[in-house]
Amino acid sequence: MSVVIAVVVIALLFTYINGFHDTANSIATVVATKVLTPGQAVLMAAGTNLIGAFLGTAVAATIASGLINAGVVEMSSQLLICALLAAIVWNLITWWLGLPSSSSHALVGSLVGAAIAASGNDFGSVIWEQGSWLKGHGVIPKVVVPMVLSPLAGFIISFILMGSLYALLAWFANRQGWSRRFGRTPFVNFFFGKAQIISASAMGVAHGMNDAQKSMGIIALALAGATAAHQFDHLPAVFGFLRIDENPAGGFVIPVWVKVVSALTMAAGTAGGGWRIIKTLGHKMVKLHPINGFAAETSSALVILTASVFGIPVSTTHNVSASIMGVGAAKRFNAIRWSVVERMVWAWILTLPVTALLAYGFVVGFRLLF
Questions:
Q1: Other CB atoms within 10 A of residue 9 CB
Q2: Mind listing the pLDDT tens digit for each residue in 59-106?
Q3: For burial by CB atoms within 10 Å, which of 42, 48, 221, 362 has the most?
Q4: CA 327, chain centre distance (Å)
Q5: How far is CA 162 from CA 28, 121, 174, 206, 331, in A?
Q6: What does the alpha-carbon distance between residue 280 and residue 128 come to, in Å, rounded to a whole number?
Q7: Do 299 and 154 contact (CB within 8 A), yes or no?
Q8: In whole angstroms, what is the distance from residue 63 CA to residue 18 CA?
């Protein structure tokens, strides 16, 4: 049982780090446009993350039963620990460097690396066989495909929305005799400054609804394995909340206490802030005004909320970054600082293989030591 408790604690540590690592994704634009102060933005993000974490469990169910074969992982809590540690290490490295990398992909990459190590380096069995640790038919459509399509959707939607807003404002400018600098007039800044509070709140809810549930899934998976191994049979009835029953509709039922603890931990991490990444997203990549922030946040929130409803664990980081790029491209392509984008893309590309290697190394080292 001590190993299971360790999984829960480390999963919550990952959730806390995810909170301050990805806080920047939901509040970078609202801080950069000076609509809210950093303190106000962090408090808003913490509250909306908390709300989002309670809205459904589809993503948690995907992590718990859609990617990993629970029957194989019953005695593999050690592997979950190694996977979580690898994801935590990568999150801290990219946070220190100010790179907005994906916590979601760090977790999935780590799970893959741990699975390969557990399978004796038989990658084919890890991904495809029924008795494997990881379900290939879940990884490909629910992780790999959305990894490409979701940021692309964010870019396209933000580009179209920003272009439409510019066209609408140009039409009003011609009719009302406004300054041709309509994107920066006091009225436009005031209106979209207020609207951006709503879009930033939606972004916070989306982040909580998708990211907090990933840790819920890991905890549920560990508890399911422990329950199946009868590790909780000696506990009195009052501890019945530790048991996870199979959902008749398929997948796991996530216990209420797991939802509460994960949500509160994500909110606490969010309150810790993530100013290094905020600087990259909100200031370095493209100069933002309230109208730009509104378009970027609305687009990315729409993509993430849609994915969350269908239980798809997407990257908040990738979607927000791509949406900001789309907004900048709608203004003009040279408005984007492509050198910053290049550094970010390299972080995206390296996340899956690096975390897989880290987790693989942790598993090998764990076996050598114990």
A1: 13
A2: 877 776 666 555 555 446 788 889 999 999 998 888 787 776 788 888
A3: 221
A4: 21
A5: 18, 47, 18, 20, 8
A6: 39
A7: yes
A8: 16
